[in-house]
Amino acid sequence: MAYVQKLTKPVAFLLILVMTTFTWGCSTTTNAGRGAGIGAGSGALIGGIIGSVSGSWVKGALIGAAIGGGAGALIGNYMDKQAAEIDRNVEGAEVERIGEGIRVVFDSGILFNTGSSAITSTSRYNIEKLAGILAKYDDTNLIIEGHTDSVGSDSMNQTLSENRAQSVANLLKAYGVSSSRLSAIGYGESRPIASNETESGRRLNRRVEVLITANNELKRQAESGKINL
C-alpha cells in the first residue's frame, strides 16, 4: 500500500508534464514538431518512472521532459539566467538546474513554524522576491510540492504538506504570478531525501520545492529559434 501511495503522486506530476508537452506537440503543424512533442512527453514519463525507482524522481522527470537540440539549448539558456537570479536574490533557497528545468528547495523550517502552514512574516519577503523573478520569466509552468518528515501520522503529514504547498502557491499568486501557471501538490512523508532516523535527516525532509519547467509558449519560441525576454 505504501508503494502505491509513493507511485500515484509522482504519476500525477508526470501527467502534468506529459500533457503539457503532448499538447504543444499536437498544436505544431509539422510532423517533426508533432514527433518532438510526443517524444518529450514519453521522455518525461519514462524519466519519471525511472527516477521514482532510483530515488531521484524529480531529476528523472525533469531530464526526461527535455526537448533537446537547438530548442533545448535556448530553453536551457533561459533557465540558466532565471536560476542565477533566484540564487542571487532569494535567501534560504537552494537552486538546482536540472535538464531544461529548475528545482528550488526551501527548508520548511525557514518558511513555517512547527506544525503550521502559515508562512512566517520573515519569509514572506523571500517568496515576494521569488515571485518577482518568476513574473519576469513568465513563460514557465510552476509545480509547488510540499514534503514532511515521518513524525506524526500519515494523514496529518499529508494534509500538512498539501496546505504548505498551497500556502506558497497562494502567496506567489498574491505577489503577481498567474494562477494558470501554478499547481500545488503535497506528498506528505512519502518522498524523503534523507533518513528520518536522525534530526538532521528529518530537517532535510521537511521542505517545499518549486519546480520550474518550460510552458507551451516558451517551447514554441525555442522552436522558432528566438526566445523573447
From TrEMBL:
Subcellular location: Cell outer membrane
Lineage: superkingdom: Bacteria
Cleaved signal peptide residues: none
Protein name from the UniProt record: OmpA/MotB domain protein
OmpA-like domain boundaries: 100-216
GO terms for cellular component: cell outer membrane
Keywords: Cell outer membrane, Membrane
Pfam families: Gly-zipper_Omp, OmpA
